[in-house]
UniProtKB/TrEMBL annotation:
Pathway(s) of this molecule: Amino-acid biosynthesis; L-histidine biosynthesis; L-histidine from 5-phospho-alpha-D-ribose 1-diphosphate: step 2/9
Keywords: Amino-acid biosynthesis, ATP-binding, Cytoplasm, Histidine biosynthesis, Hydrolase, Nucleotide-binding
Locations listed in the record: Cytoplasm
PANTHER family the record matches: HISTIDINE BIOSYNTHESIS BIFUNCTIONAL PROTEIN (PTHR42945), HISTIDINE BIOSYNTHESIS BIFUNCTIONAL PROTEIN HISIE (PTHR42945:SF9)
Major localization class: cytoplasm
Protein name, UniProt field: Phosphoribosyl-ATP pyrophosphatase
């Protein structure tokens, strides 16, 4: 689909790797290792993105961000979360200030 967002396309590729051969697919290898390993990779890539921001270059921030987003799509597929679930939440938050949202949580 020409206008499909790259993250939706990536998610479709990743989800299709469930049950594929771990010898030929890094994604299949992650699925075979399980949720703890996938979650660990998301954490590692998040930390690497932070390190890139604090000590490296904007190009490195971009490439670490791509690693992070890829591993996040693997975690979504592992957890049965679809990209549209996340897009929906972001859409619902549009126009709501983060400061106002935090204040409303404190009032609960
Ligand atoms: N976008 C990515 C992508 N980004 C990063 N990576 C891989 O993520 C790994 C991260 O590197 P690390 O050094 O942190 O990982 P590692 O040391 O190999 O792993 P561990 O020892 O920590 O388990 C590398 O092997 C990268 O190649 C990705 N692997 C796959 N994709 C996409 O997923 C698609 C399917 O890939 P396969 O499942 O491999 O066919 C590809 O066509 C791409 O579109």
């Amino acid at each position: 689909m020409a206008d499909q967002h790259i993250l939706d396309a990536l998610y479709a590729t990743v989800a299709a790797r469930k049950g594929a051969d771990p010898n030929t697919s890094y994604t299949a290898k992650l699925f075979a290792k399980g949720t703890a390993k996938i979650a660990q990779k998301v954490g590692e890539e998040g930390v690497e993105t932070v390190i890139a921001a604090l000590a490296e270059t904007p190009d490195k921030v971009a490439s670490e961000s791509a690693d992070l987003l890829y591993h996040l799509t693997v975690l979504w597929a592992d957890q049965g979360v679809k990209p549209e679930d996340v897009w929906q939440i972001l859409a619902e938050r549009q126009g709501i200030s983060g400061i106002a949202e935090k204040a409303s949580r404190k009032a609960d």
